Model the fold of this input.
Amino acid sequence: MEQRTRAGYAGTGPGAITPDGCAVELYARLPVGSEPDVIVGAVPAGARILELGCGVGRITHALLERGFEVTAVDESPEMLERVSGARTICGRVERLDLGETFDVVLLASFLVHAGDPEVRRGMLRTCVRHLAEGGCVLIQREGADYHTNVPRERVDPAGFTVRIVSVEPVGDGVDSVHAEYEFPDATWTQTFRSRPLTPEQFETALAEEGLRVDRYLTEDGIWVRAVPVLRP
Done:
């Protein structure tokens, strides 16, 4: 079945483009960063992890190497074809209901900043629905200056350049973000919708779905460990 890019999202460059404008070939080239180390420091060894929006498995594969059991979810079959060693499930994160629970639910890639608040609520409900007793949700947030320090660029040690070219308001507190990834032999672009969330707005969004911040895992506040709100 053909996948259609969602309104407000676009991508260009070689290879398949997912509905949210991500280029599969691009993400297959991007190196894994410090994310696995952050995750390892926040969860029990050997935990069962549900990874929402896994892409090509950059984090997935690193977690498998560290001894975790990972169920990887993505809406793009082309992305999931690049994932090996993990159980994979193709579907929209905000609609997922596997009928089982996990020690850890991982919501990375700034998915919590979805432009549509109903999509964000659906994603957080998915996190709660799949969380085992005593488990936690790990969430990756945008940095404080992501929407204001523009344009900006970063040259990666791996030899490519990432640029945030523009951030334009499109109404209702949502921005259209345009990014470029330049490699020596190819260039990809992505345009996507993102809703900035202050720490207060972020914590309110969690509370609406029965979650609370347990602690911020990084000094910049980008990685967060959340747990269910204890009901009296």
Summary: The mean pLDDT is 95. The longest strand covers residues 161-171. The radius of gyration is 17 Å. Residues 142 and 148 are 12 Å apart (CA to CA).
